[in-house]
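Throughout our pipeline, every protein is held as a single compact record rather than as scattered files. The record that follows is passed on verbatim for readers who wish to inspect the format:
___
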Amino acid sequence: MDRPSPATQDEVRRHNLSSLLRLVHVRGPASRADLTALTGLNRSTVKALTEDLVSAGLLRESAPVGTGGAGRPSITVEPESELVYVLALDIGVEHLTVVRVGLGGVVLDRRELAQAPKDYELRRTLKRLEKLVGSLLADTPRKARCVGIGVGVPGGVSNDDGTVRFAPNLGWTDVPFREHLTSLLGTALPIDIGNDGDLGARAEHLRGAARGLTDVIYLAGEVGVGGGIILGGRPVAGHGGYGGEVGHMSIDPKGLTCRCGRRGCWETEIGDQAVLALTGAPPGATLEHVLAAYAAGERWAQPGMRRVARSLSLGVVNLVNIFNPQLILFGGAVRNLYVALQPLIHEALKEALQAPGEQVRLGVAGLGDDSVAIGAAELAFSRLLDDPLGTLGRLPSTLRLPA
């Protein structure tokens, strides 16, 4: 049997640069002494690596703080968050958001528009994105460098070519979205597109309420319901990347018709439009109005909300029994439902199998409405973190919309 070739010096250096930059990106400012302990590298190697990353404009060093072994001052290393950034696009059913996120996961600036069904037409969506990105770039320091673009969409995305295969709540099927964005922005920057549930799970696992856990399910949605699954510390997206479509888990074969064409999908019972319909909410009411009426004990809201609680609980119990997670997080509009119906949902958890039911915790997304955008940013940063100097050498120096 052939033995693998030993790693070359360049490969070892690239790996070490990646490990060090990733540590600072995720953990934030750290002393050289801390980085030495965390990486297992010797002090002189860490010094050389940080100097390389500082010279590349990715990190900066500040005056020594404390001591780093044998009483020596230890220089603090931190990401150049203001100067190295990605654009994160969160395309929702009820919102369109563009965020500038600096290295280290710092939200630097944002633009947002409300979405309505008339906005889902592809050309209109692209024009609105162009407006948001242009506004954001106009306020971006010219010396700052964009190193990638990440996009979250409420649907299934092909990992190979960035095609949105299906986003039923937007009415999109087989849309070559990466191709359209590349043309719109006139850029050679890499554009990575992912499912919003997967990206929300990624963000919460790295920076939010699920940090440090290994088995987590993230739920979020507006009209629809999406999910992201982390098992054993790794994302689970299936063979083609289409896994996690929990909103299309059938809970009532004789139920309402879903926008995907099937009947009784989970989102037909717990999506915000479904909640309005099931409660018989008055014309013009929003989900917030219904939840306030339910909390106030208004009679018209009670039966429908109890049905929503049963449907939400049924899906949660199924997920607990199948995946045995440590934590289920609720984000987006589903977060508001969970908060309002929390006692009923916890009571329903008794229907889960005893062992997984005892082990799971329920909670709300720690990053609030930014979970998907932060996840999209992390997707966009991944190339830089894998190969810092090589990636920088291949990227265009600026991002400006074509005139």
